[in-house]
Every structure is written in C-alpha cells, then in structure tokens.
Amino acid sequence: MKNLKINVAHLIITTLVLLFVLPASLFSQGDVPKGDYPNLMDAKGLKQGAWKKVDSLGTCIYVGQFKDNNPIGVFIYFDTDARKMSEVNFLKGGPVAYGKMFSVTGKLQAQGKYVNHEKDSLWTFFTEDGLLLSQESYKNGKKDGKSVTYYPGTKSVSEISFYKNGLQDSTWTQYYNDGKKEAEGKYKKGNSEGKAVWYFSDGKVNIIGNYMHGVKDGNWVYYNSDGTVKGKETWKEGRLTSQAQVIKKEDMDKHPDDPQDPGQNGGQEPGGQ
Question: What's the domain count of the chain?
Fold first, then answer.
C-alpha cells in the first residue's frame, strides 16, 4: 500500500509536469483548421474577426475570433508540430472562459474554468491515458478550497485536502483503495500542524505523533499490527531528543508488518504531494 501511495503521488507530479512544464509533449493530434484568416484591425487598431497567429517560422500558435480586440468563442492553440494543445471557449467575449488540454493521443488531460485568464472554481485533471486523477478548486489562479485525488481510473478517493490562497490548510485525509482511512492530520498556512495519525488497513493505529510549524515536535509512538508498541521517539522542534525501544528487537522481528514511517523525512509535510 505504501508503494501504491507513492505511485499515486508520482503520477500526479508527472501529469502536472506534462501539463505545465513540457507543453510540447502533451498536445493531441489535429491539423490547423483551413480557412480564411484576414487578421484585420479596425481604424482604432482593434482586432476584428477571424485571426490566425503565427510565429517567425510560420508555425501556427492559435486560431480564433476577436471582437473589439476581445477574444470571443472557441480559440484553438497548437504546438510546433501543428497538434492541438488546448481549446479555450471565451464566453461572449467576457472575462469567463472554459478550457480543455489534451495529450498527444488526443486524450483529455485537464478541464476547467478561467476568470480573467486565471484558473477559477473546479478543475479536473486526468492521467496521460485519460483516466480521472484529481479535482481541485481554484480562486484567482491559486488552489483554494477542496482538493480530491483519486486512485487513477476509479472514483475511489486516495486523498482529500484543503487549500487557502495556494497553501495547504485545514485537514488532510488519506484512504486505502477500499475506502478505509489510512492517515489524517492538519495543515496551517502550508505547514503540518498538530496531531497526525497513520492506520493499518484494519483500522488500528500505526503511527501517532505531533507536528509544529511543519516539523516533528513532542512524542511519537509506533505500533505493531497487533497493537503492541514498537518504539517511541521524543522530538523538539524538529530535532530528535530521545528514542526508546520498548520491546526487544527479537520480538519486533516476529512482526512482519513494518509500520509506514512517512514522518522520517526531515520534517517534510506528510500529506504533501
């Protein structure tokens, strides 16, 4: 299960990189539409009618319609190989638009709403194969509100977290793929804060500890799957001050279920992606 959780996080990171860092690799097959694009400007220098923008090499960047210099209707954007990168529908030439992004095979990668060219409201993301990956809330281009990650291709929730002004805030909860709770904790302004708990698949406590300003602080207790204590730690503002092994090593070795230890990461947030 730990490996599966890591794979889900890796898949999220990979998908976001493909969407926003390597745009030339994520566009769907599709030729630039044929047609008449006069690229007209009126006496005031405002764009009017059908436009086709090309770069210095003659490669099409987008096609669409303008009215009084404002984009209106559907704009299609392309990569350097004339493959469709995205579609953006500018409603009535106003500040609201709806966008879609595509993979090189034409699979939908992301869709959502823009307000004044910034992400807003609910956005849905998909894997490279077009499988449901996550749903995130945005405000003024930053994550704000509920964020849900799924086990790819299913509606089984992997993690629920909340954001405020682009920073993780409030509770986070992780789940096994059968819906049982795997871990829970809290964030405050982007830092882990307060009690965090990890569970075995049967619901018994695996690890319990406390964070302060993003680092371990206070007592941490690690349990075996049968409920016996495997070990204890005491932390002070991210520094390990004492460690006690409360059962014999040979007894510990009799328990094959090693507890997850997502906190042994130098004080990094446990629920981060």
Answer: 1
